[in-house]
Specification:
With 135 residues, this protein is mainly beta. The protein is built from one helix and six strands, in the order E-E-E-E-H-E-E.
Length: 135
């Protein structure tokens, strides 16, 4: 899966040692550019990937990631792990396709003209009419 957004937070790098040797992981938060922006936390695992991606706060990035879940003490947790992070030109995020208009929406060129300066027609006085409606 892919997601594009602006990096808003870089969490502290974590390191450790496992049976396979030393490891490094760092998590980042990006914010999307949708009508209702989403924030997504993703992790980059491995010193080589951290160096290659060189993610900085404020960058516009396209993140390719896998989602996986694991169980710990009877609870389940999602893991969003990036396998590719590419910098994107900030001017390009506005060029992404926008949501399609509602199926019954009236195109702007077919909408009625504004009614500024509109005046209701003068009502003729008639003794037959008992209501005060203009029509």
């Amino acid at each position: 899966m892919d997601i594009q957004g602006k990096v808003i937070v870089a969490l502290p790098e974590r390191t450790g040692v496992s049976a396979r040797g030393e490891w490094k992981v760092q998590e980042y938060v990006i914010e999307t550019h949708e009508a209702y922006p989403h924030k997504v936390v993703f992790s980059v695992f491995g010193a080589d990937r951290l160096a290659r991606f060189n993610i900085q706060v404020g960058q516009e990035v396209m993140v390719s990631f896998d989602i996986d879940a694991h169980e710990y003490n009877g609870r389940w947790f999602n893991s969003i792990r990036a396998f590719e992070v590419r910098q994107v030109d900030p001017a390009q995020f506005g060029a992404q396709p926008t949501a399609a208009p509602a199926p019954n929406a009236i195109p702007p060129q077919q909408q009625a003209a504004p009614t500024a300066g509109f005046e209701a027609p003068a009502q003729e006085s008639s003794e037959e009419s008992t209501d005060d409606l203009p029509f």
